[in-house]
Design goal:
This protein has 166 residues and is mainly β. The protein has one domain: Fimbrial-type adhesion domain (Immunoglobulin-like, Sandwich). The protein is built from 1 helix and 8 strands; from the N terminus they run H-E-E-E-E-E-E-E-E.
Length: 166
């Protein structure tokens, strides 16, 4: 097909117009908006502990440990308390395991030398406050059965509740 010279500019203009229309850029407009993004991070903690097994007690000093693991939200301060246990009339300074028809006394301490009793009242008889890192943290509980506690043979047990206050 042959076009005359006078028709060629019209044809070119028409083709260019169609290309501009097809791309959408000739008549496009934009507008913007913003939106807020937010969240609240709440302080939270989890706690777990390993068993404390003294093994066979033969009347001599028996020592054992338990490991308490905590995970709290980063920068959250917390303290861990240990209750008196389940033995009748036990206190945090005089814990006892129940067995046979008698009790076997023991202590829980925050230090390896067994001089600082570990109690249940934050700021009074619990270890100093710890600041969480967001990662798991561990602390050792030191247990001791004193020498010379000659009780009837049998299995003695207690259950301690560890409480994290944050």
């Amino acid at each position: 097909m042959t076009f005359s010279n006078s028709f060629k500019p019209v044809l070119c203009a028409t083709v260019l117009g169609l290309l501009a229309f097809a791309s959408g850029s000739a008549n496009a407009a934009t507008t913007t908006t913003t939106f807020a993004v937010n969240s609240t991070v709440v302080a939270t903690c989890t706690i777990s502990a390993t068993a404390m097994a003294f093994g066979n007690y033969t009347g001599v000093v028996a020592d054992s440990t338990s490991t308490i693991s905590t995970t709290c939200t980063n920068t959250t301060p917390y303290q861990i308390g240990l209750d008196a246990g389940t033995a009748t009339s036990a206190t945090v300074t005089a814990r006892s395991m129940t067995g046979s028809s008698v009790l076997l006394a023991y202590g829980l301490y925050s230090d390896a030398t067994h001089t600082t009793n570990w109690g249940n009242t934050p700021g009074t008889d619990t270890p100093a406050s710890v600041t969480a890192t967001g990662a798991a943290q561990t602390v050792t509980v030191y247990g001791e059965i004193a020498a010379g506690l000659y009780v009837a043979p049998g299995v003695y047990a207690d259950t301690i509740t560890a409480t994290i206050t944050y």
